[in-house]
Amino acid sequence: MTAETARFLPRRGALALLATLVLAAPAFAEGPQSFAPLVKRVQPAVVSIRTTETVQGDDPLANLPPEFQQLFRQRFKAHKERQQAAGSGFVVDPTGYIVTNNHVVGNADEIKVAFSDGTELSAKVIGTDELTDVALIKVQAPAALPYVTWGDSRAVEVGDWVVCAGNPFGLGGSITAGIVSARGRDIGSGPFDDFLQIDAPINPGNSGGPVFNSDGKVVGVDTAIASPTGASVGIGFAIPSEIVSRIVTELREKGRVERGWLGATLQEVPDNDGHGNIGVGITAVEKNGPGQRSGLKPGDIVTGINGQPADSARTLIRAVAATPPGGTVRFGLRRQGRDMELNVVVGRRPNGQG
Fold first, then answer.
1. What is the 3-state secondary structure (H, E, C) of the chain?
2. Taking the model in full, what pTM does it have?
3. Which of 72, 79, 181, 230 would bridge 197 by S-S if both were Cys, CB 3.0 to 4.6 A apart?
4. Is 243 in the same domain as 268?
């Protein structure tokens, strides 16, 4: 029966159809009767973060004529202001290691962490990663802290229930729930975008807060929302735990994240029917960069990476970035119509490189 014919059913038939739909609805609406047991278990490890940052304010002499600016310049120091912000985080180790977003603490001069029992402690930054927006901070706790553990974001499916905890609009200890709306979202924030989209309400101040699966394991970290108003409209984005946990381990061990780097400009090469790519074209290589030193040339088309298809520039960038500097990636290449393989020794990604 089509939608067109359904509209013209006799009244009795229409009511019968509606009754069928109403009776079937509860099967799709079933969910956890309560998240309370999960929340009681994990909430003590969720923290509110308050930061203070010194920012450069407007120059009080800027509107004066140049000769007066020069006259008074020595009498005025650079005008600076103190700016406060709030975010969220969660304890991942009882000795005081806390995960949050880089944009919450990356430029902070002072960091205060508030726990659910009212305790407030100062924190220091252990390390940050701007490209994934992950940060690791630490407090000196007088006793072992409650903490949460990582779940496997690779096992998360669209439609799964999730619970978010954090400090929206400064309201610490807030809990929201929803489902995973999509996976693998690219929102244009960087070369490693691979977000979980969730419809659980998250708002300013939730940044850095955990996303829990139904087992109370962290499967994501809240980092961004899409909204015309700046408040939640049910489209939020979380960094998958698969990415965050790996970054956190490296920040804890080294204080920074080291990524492989190719030193090449890339462009996807579509196939003849325009429905896909045959590979990733090398349009330029940096002089004396790792790609050039390994024999990569402009005009090469990378068709494979370590035996896997190179179907996009993003796939290639991620494979190279995941290789430790000094490590080797095996490229399948097409050069002037001839297929070949080339081992490329990757370099260290310079600071600020996307």
1. CCHHHHCCCCHHHHHHHHHHHHHHHHHHHCCCCCCHHHHHHHHHHEEEEEEEEEEECCCCCCCCCHHHHHHHHHHCCCCEEEEEEEEEEEEEECCCEEEECHHHHCCCCEEEEECCCCCEEEEEEEEEECCCCEEEEEECCCCCCCCCCECCHHHCCCCCEEEEEECHHHCCCEEEEEEEEEEEECCCCCCCCCEEEECCCCCCCCCCCEEECCCCCEEEEEEEECCCCCCCCCCEEEEEHHHHHHHHHHHHHHCCCCCEECCEEEEEEECCCCCCEEEEEEEEECCCCHHHHCCCCCCCEEEEECCEECCCHHHHHHHHHCCCCCCEEEEEEEECCEEEEEEEECEECCCCCC
2. 0.77
3. 181
4. no
In a domain, 177, yes or no: yes
Distance in angstroms (rounded) separating the CA atoms of residues 146 and 47: 11
Kindly state whether residues 296 and 283 are assigned to the same domain. Answer: yes
Of 201, 230, 257, at which residue does a domain stop? 257
Containing structural domain, residue 323: 260-348
- Let me know whether 88 and 221 are in one domain: yes
Quick: pLDDT tens for 244-297.
999 999 999 999 999 999 999 999 998 877 677 889 999 999 999 999 999 999
**Angle subtended at Cα 67 by Cα 62 and Cα 70, rounded to the nearest 5 degrees:** 70
Closest CA to 51 of 89, 81, 85, 98: 85
- My answer on whether 222 and 284 are in the same domain is no
First to last CA, the chain: 53
Q: Confirm whether 27 is domain-assigned.
A: no
Q: What is the pLDDT of residues 289-316, one digit of tens each?
A: 999 999 999 999 999 999 999 888 888 9
